[in-house]
Design goal:
The chain starts with a strand and ends with a strand. It has a five-stranded antiparallel sheet with strand order 1-2-9-4-7, with no helix packed on it. A four-stranded antiparallel sheet has the order 3-8-5-6, with no helix packed on it. By secondary structure, the protein is mainly β. It is elongated and about 65 Å long. It has one helix spanning 123-126; strands at residues 2-4, 12-18, 28-30, 47-53, 60-67, 70-80, 87-93, 112-117, 129-139, 171-173, 181-183. It has one helix and eleven strands, in the order E-E-E-E-E-E-E-E-H-E-E-E.
Length: 184
């Protein structure tokens, strides 16, 4: 349900109660019919964050994204809470999928989000627990300005090649060393 934030009465959050009868995979979906826009994953932008409030630290929280029109297209990843009874911003990297689940495929549409608290533990084992969550966000990488030496190896640098006078450049694999990246 949508409720008042347990720590800030001026904020509204989602509340998920994993009952004492819940399945180990019990969770909550946002955007059941699909989000207004697909999540814009790219090769360098594969992360989402969620602010969570959990009664326990060190529990796995699973985030799953899928195609709202085809539930066979999905990817799942997990993060652990680090604190109990406080807000904790968890980062979920979809390029690091949970073992046994599908890998992120950039050709797919992902426009549905589900969250699972204490994934893998059922209600009879954990007892009833109440979780809160808010601020589900797609994270865009924060690039740093290019500096010397220019190596084309740093994923945190936007090399942003600009061509002029009829030139066409790109960043590619070194033709003599596949472990190296070069400008062409």
């Amino acid at each position: 349900s949508i409720v008042e934030d347990p720590t800030d009465p001026s904020n509204t959050v989602a509340q998920s109660i994993k009952t004492d009868m819940a399945q180990l995979w019990a969770g909550t979906t946002a955007g059941d019919d699909g989000l207004a826009n697909p999540i814009p994953f790219t090769s360098s932008a594969t992360q989402m964050s969620v602010r969570v409030w959990s009664p326990d630290a060190n529990i796995p929280v699973r985030l799953k994204v899928e195609d709202a029109t085809d539930p066979t297209i999905s990817v799942e990843t997990e993060a652990l809470t680090t604190v109990a009874m406080q807000w904790d911003t968890l980062v979920f990297d979809f390029s690091n999928e949970v073992m046994g689940t599908a890998a992120l495929n950039l050709d797919n549409t992902y426009d549905k989000v589900s969250i699972f608290f204490n994934f893998g533990t059922d209600g009879p084992t954990a007892g009833q627990k109440t979780y809160f969550w808010d601020d589900v966000q797609f994270l865009t990488p924060q690039f740093v300005q290019v500096d010397l030496p220019i190596t084309f190896e740093d994923d945190n640098v936007d090399y942003d090649l600009t061509d002029f006078g009829g030139n066409a450049s790109s960043i590619v694999e070194d033709p003599t060393d596949p472990s190296n990246t070069v400008a062409q």
